[in-house]
Structures are given as structure tokens and as C-alpha cells.
Amino acid sequence: MSKNRKIIIAGNWKMNKSIAEAEELTRNITMELGETSEVDVVVCPTFTALKSVGDIITNTTVKLGAQNMHWEAEGAYTGEISASMLRDLYCHYVILGHSERRTYFGETDEIVNNKVKAAIAANLKPIVCVGESLEQRESDQTKDVIKGQIEKSLAGLGENLDKVIIAYEPIWAIGTGLTASPEQAQDVHAYIRSILEEMGGTDIAQSIRIQYGGSMKPANAEELLSQPDIDGGLIGGAALDASSFAGIVNAGIQK
Ligand code: PEP
Fold first, then answer.
1. What single DSSP character describes residue 70?
2. Ligand 1 contact via 237 beta carbon (within 6 Å)
3. For the chain, which residues make up each domain, given as ranges?
4. Which residue's alpha carbon is at the smallest distance from atom 2 of ligand 1?
5. Which of 107, 132, 169, 189 is catalytic?
6. What distance in angstroms lies between residue 75's CA and the mean position of ligand 1's atoms?
7. Known catalytic residue at 72
8. Which of 46, 79, 83, 240 is the most exposed place for a label (fewest CB within 10 A)?
9. How far out from the chain centre does Cα 237 lie?
10. Which atom number of ligand 1 is nearest to the Cα of residue 239?
11. 117: CA distance to ligand 1 center in Å?
């Protein structure tokens, strides 16, 4: 089946940049990109820079995303931020279940599932991350791990399944300079789509965008994005540099 899904490139800035630095990066990104609309472009700064970055991109095609949120709407959850608070700041997207949150903050698939439901209820588009460790890949568990993560993180969404974006991020490729080969990535992306088909049927599975993440850069983006089931990128390191990020967006436009 031909790919008619719009490419989506999202930058995950992680815990980097002061407000002034985030503003500078944002200005540089918008200058590099101009009026790009062939590709959906999202930037995900820290919570503290969301307002300033959001103000700069208001009249551009770049959209704002957050890196995390809590699933409750409000209440006694010290240090947390809710979906509606992100909407207050004009966020359109939120990254959920990133491997760093799963590894360092104990996020389980059940927690991710609660967050996905709360994000959708607040009209935020969740970017749901899944991926295997090196040990799991080497012991041939990749597909079992991915299946469990997808089925549990997206459980009970019903017709709202089509509101999610998935990011396949092999943990061994995140921030390591190692990239999954286009064939390795395509293989897992096609597998993810087959699970989505089991969960929601063909039309929904064909409409859901699946990003690749893990050391994507301008030099490897075009080949990865040319794969039939790779519909975008979630970018860490290369998103902190405006011309690298724009280079990846341009690779998405080319293909
Ligand atoms: C990420 O953390 O989502 C990521 C893909 O990082 P990097 O591009 O640096 O590997």
C-alpha cells in the first residue's frame, strides 16, 4: 500500500537550554525552515521554555510539544503538569513514555496508557515511544517487547487509536551515534503497523504515523524516511542545532 501519511519531524530538546538559548534556537529553526508546510514540524522544549518558544512560533507552521505530563487533570501532585496546562500554553503534542522516562522514572506501560488517554481527552496529540534495549535485541526479544509496549500503552483507546503518533526508538540507538539500519527500522515499523491493524483495523493502522528515533541526522534521514512504514523522526541530539534539525526536515520534504 502506498504511503500517504504526512511526514512528522519532532525535536526532543530533553533537559537542555535556558529560556534565552531556547528562544535563539527557535528563531534559528524558523529562519532555516521558512514556511515549510509539506512536513509537520514540532519542537519540544523543557516546560520552562514552552511559553517563550510558543510565542516565537505562533505565526509559523512549527507546532509546540511537551516532553511529559501527568494523567490527572489537577490536584495534589507536587511537581506535575497536566494536559490542560499544556493546552493553556498552546501545546499540540506531548511525548509520552520516552525510554528515559521509563528507565529513570519508572514509567510503566500502564502509566503511559493513563497519560495517553488523558492527552487525547485534552485534545493533545500523544507521541508514544516504544523500543527495545540492546540486550533484548540480541536475545531476539525485540518484537515481543514492542508488541507488549504497544498493546499495553494503547489499550482501551477504541476509535481514538487514530489520534496517536508512535515513535519507534531502539534504546541502543538513542544518543549513542548508532542508528538502526533502514532495513532494521522498517522491519519493526511494519511489525508495529501489523499490531495496530489487529487492534484497530486496516484504515486506522494505515493512517497512524510511526516515527523513527535514534541518532537520526541529516546524513541518514533521507534513507530512513524513504522506508514505506517510516513516517517521520523523533530527534534528540540533532534537534539542538538549527541547521541539523532543518536538514532532517528538508530530507522529509525531498522524499
Ligand atoms: C530521543 O531521545 O528521542 C532521540 C532520538 O535521541 P537522539 O536523536 O539523540 O538519539
1. B
2. yes
3. 8-254
4. 236
5. 169
6. 32
7. no
8. 79
9. 14
10. 8
11. 24
Q: What is the CATH class of 8-254?
A: alpha beta
Instruction: Identify the CA nearest to 239 among candidates 6, 7, 5, 17.
Output: 17
H or E segment and range at residue 101? helix 99-104
Whether residue 169 lies in the annotated active site? yes
CA of 241 to the centre of ligand 1 (A): 13
Categorize the per-residue pLDDT at 178 as very low, low, confident or very high, splitting at 50, 70 and 90.
Answer: confident
> Do the beta carbons of residue 144 and residue 126 sit within 8 Å?
no
Q: Which of 200, 212, 121 is nearest to 165 (CA)?
A: 212
User: Burial, 156: exposed, middle or buried (Cβ in 10 Å; 0-12, 13-18, 19+)?
Assistant: exposed
Q: Which of 98, 172, 174, 248 to mutate to test the pocket of ligand 1 (most atoms within 8 A of CB)?
A: 174
**C-alpha cell belonging to residue 21:** 538559548
Which tens digits make up the pLDDT trace of 145-170? Answer: 999 999 999 999 999 999 999 999 99
* Contact indicator for 199, 154 with CB cutoff of 8 Å: yes
Tell me the backbone φ, ψ of residue 184, rounded to 5 degrees. Answer: -60, -45
Which member of 98, 100, 107, 189 is catalytic? 98
DSSP string, 139-151: TT-HHHHHHHHHH
pLDDT tens readout for residues 108-142: 999 999 999 999 999 999 999 999 999 999 999 99
